[in-house]
TrEMBL record:
Keyword Transmembrane appears in the UniProt entry: yes
Entry keyword set: Membrane, Transmembrane, Transmembrane helix
Protein known as: DUF4244 domain-containing protein
One Pfam match: DUF4244
Residue ranges crossing the lipid bilayer per the database entry: 21-41
Amino acid sequence: MWNLIRRLRVALTGDDGMSTAEYAVGTLAAVAFATTLYAVVTSGSVEEALTGLIERGLQGAGT
């Protein structure tokens, strides 16, 4: 049990921050996610749904 607690403390208080390789992998993952999100949002069906939602909101605000 004490060994587990010691290892947990070391893991939580170990190296602060990320190394250059971890930054590169994190940046690559963020770019991949942003690209996927952009592709989904600009697809025809999602774009139509968002446009309709905004138009309904603006029509409701005007009455």
